[in-house]
Specification:
single chain; mainly alpha; disordered N terminus
């Protein structure tokens, strides 16, 4: 139940994700830390954020892969037919180069399902 998660988060002294930690299957605060350590060198999430090595991720959920303006995607990503959502991100983040063969995203992936869920929960909130 969401009250139990909120309570355990408060007791454990975790910060961040005030409303997001209660939404969805992942922990937004944990996802924010994962994003910072594994993703932020190449991606931004805020509206109007810059493209870096990878594209800005604002508006990610529901968007077709490889369709954000102002970023030069690989032909594989642009032609993948993927629409980003919780399920597609969970699979992509496990092994990006297997999910979209030919992607230029140089990231091995996140093997632990709980870490991927946390990251997806963070992305769902932070890119909206």
């Amino acid at each position: 139940a969401w009250n139990q998660r909120r309570e355990s988060t408060r007791i454990m002294g975790k910060k961040g994700g005030k409303k997001g930690a209660d939404a969805g299957p992942g922990d937004v605060a944990k996802g924010a830390k994962i994003f910072k350590t594994k993703c932020s060198a190449c991606h931004t999430v805020e509206a109007g954020g810059s493209n870096k090595q990878g594209p800005n991720l604002h508006g990610l959920f529901g968007r077709a892969a490889g369709s954000s303006d102002g970023y030069s995607y690989s032909a594989a990503m642009s032609g993948s037919g993927v629409a980003w959502g919780e399920d597609s991100l969970m699979e992509f983040l496990l092994a990006p180069k297997k999910y979209v063969a030919g992607t230029k995203m140089a990231f091995a992936g996140i093997k632990k399902p709980a870490e991927r869920k946390d990251l997806v929960a963070y992305l769902n909130e932070s890119t909206a």
